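Lecture 7, part B: from sequences to assemblies.

Below are the input chains for today's worked example.
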Amino acid sequence: MVKVRKSKVTPPPTECPLSGCMKLIRGAWTPHVIWYLKAEPRRFSELKSDIKGVSAKVLSTRLKELEEAGVVLREAMNTSPPTVEYSLTELGRELQPAIAAIVSVSEKLKKQKYARLGYAR
Amino acid sequence: MVKVRKSKVTPPPTECPLSGCMKLIRGAWTPHVIWYLKAEPRRFSELKSDIKGVSAKVLSTRLKELEEAGVVLREAMNTSPPTVEYSLTELGRELQPAIAAIVSVSEKLKKQKYARLGYAR
DNA sequence: CAGCATCCCTCATGATACTG
DNA sequence: CAGTATCATGAGGGATGCTG
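Predicted structure of the full complex, as structure tokens:
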């Protein structure tokens, strides 16, 4: 009989903190949005062309979710034609390094994989 | 006429590095797997009970993907009954802080939101 | 114990068209 | 420009049952 060992990793306090994490980065394009907002505020259509392949509907949905979560700030400018600028909130900016770290790891993994397969040259 | 400003964010070298990122953390349970492997190797059924709500099928799929990607190491122990231990590779371990950072931000956002709504007490 | 095979079903995404 | 409405699709996920 194999005994199930007790996990040494403490589970989150109330309910899964990872759930919150998942809600934040849910959606295929969420990392892209945060990525492209890192340097400066961007308008809707700018983001849409920054992020190749995203549809207006999905982009709009993500932006609304991120705004609701407190990651992104939406600011309608009183110009003609009307423009809207999106930017990262202070907390939103804290997500940037995390995403960068994941990207970095995935880059290293890619290289490692090529080497493993002998595609090094 | 509104001019579309050039983005100052450099797009990834060859093709979207964020795609690689997405592939890494794709799947609802991927962060959980990495989270629960951070301290020590875990067996399949241990992980399954660590991660409440995950099905064997999905867990198995994620583990296979992560192993294929080079994030997780699978080691079959020659015991009876057979046991299999999963652990993080060196690069896999680099993902841990990133996930922790995202969790941290999501916790802060949650508190901020409660405060905003007046549920502070 | 450690999975794989199957069936089903929901949700996110994509495309298209339209509005303020 | 900055979206919303509607429809169609399909991949990911859950449940169950079976194998080595």
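Note for the exam: Residues 90-117 of chain B form the longest helix (28 residues). Keep this in mind when comparing with the next example.
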